[in-house]
Amino acid sequence: MPLKLPPLPYDYAALEPSIDEETMHIHHDKHHQAYVDKANAALAATDWADFSAVEILSNLNALPEEKRTAVRNNVGGVANHTLFWNCMGPAKGGEPSGELAAAIEQTFGDFASFKQLFTDTSVNQFGSGWGWLVHDGSKLQVLSTANQDSPVSSGLTPLLACDIWEHAYYLKYQNRRPDYVAAWWDVVDWDAVAARLRG
């Protein structure tokens, strides 16, 4: 079954004022849809057309070599954006609790240190890309990836994603990526992140 554009899990205006409604319309309906369309086109003549995005990204080397770049970019765009929408929600933000909070404290010392590391990693990613909190099978890590590369392709489990492509923030924040990332924290859905950690 071809990849599909998932509906947003909330209204387009639900993340105001952190992320504006117009950006959400363009980002979801245009950018994410384009990744879906291009991913399906790249997969159409392969044995992978009916696999999930995660299955495909976990097995990139099994795809025909001439398809890998298009698949990595576009299936990555599908998976990354789907996770991104589900990392956020209205009236969220704050700090995690329970097992996730304990894991963050164990790895990074405290939440403030984690938040600063994640912010710096995201803000300082050169060009387009993503900031990530991932689990490597034994512990948490903060990292960034370029373009639409996914941690899944490196055997990591993404828990939290911040889209730092300019299309994610330029209408409201222009070149002020640090302001966007600072506002993004106010809509992070820690319950969803914790659920991914539990598996």
What features would you describe in this structure?
By secondary structure, the chain is mainly α. It is built from eight helices and three strands. Strands 2-1-3 form a three-stranded antiparallel β-sheet, with helices on both faces. Helix 1 runs antiparallel to helix 3. The mean pLDDT is 96.
What would CATH call the homologous superfamily of the largest domain? Iron/manganese superoxide dismutase, C-terminal domain
Q: CATH top level of the largest domain?
A: Alpha Beta
> What percentage of amino acids are in beta strands?
5-15%
Percent range for helical residues? 40-55%
Cα Rg? 16 Å
Order of helices and strands: HHHHHEEEHHH
Outline type: globular
Task: Please name the defining characteristics of this protein.
11% strand, 199 residues, 3-stranded antiparallel β-sheet, 47% helix, Helix Hairpins, mainly alpha
Question: TL;DR?
Answer:
The chain has 199 residues and is mainly alpha-helical. The chain has helices at 21-43, 53-57, 65-85, 98-108, 111-123, 170-173, 177-184, 190-198; strands spanning 129-135, 140-146, 157-163.
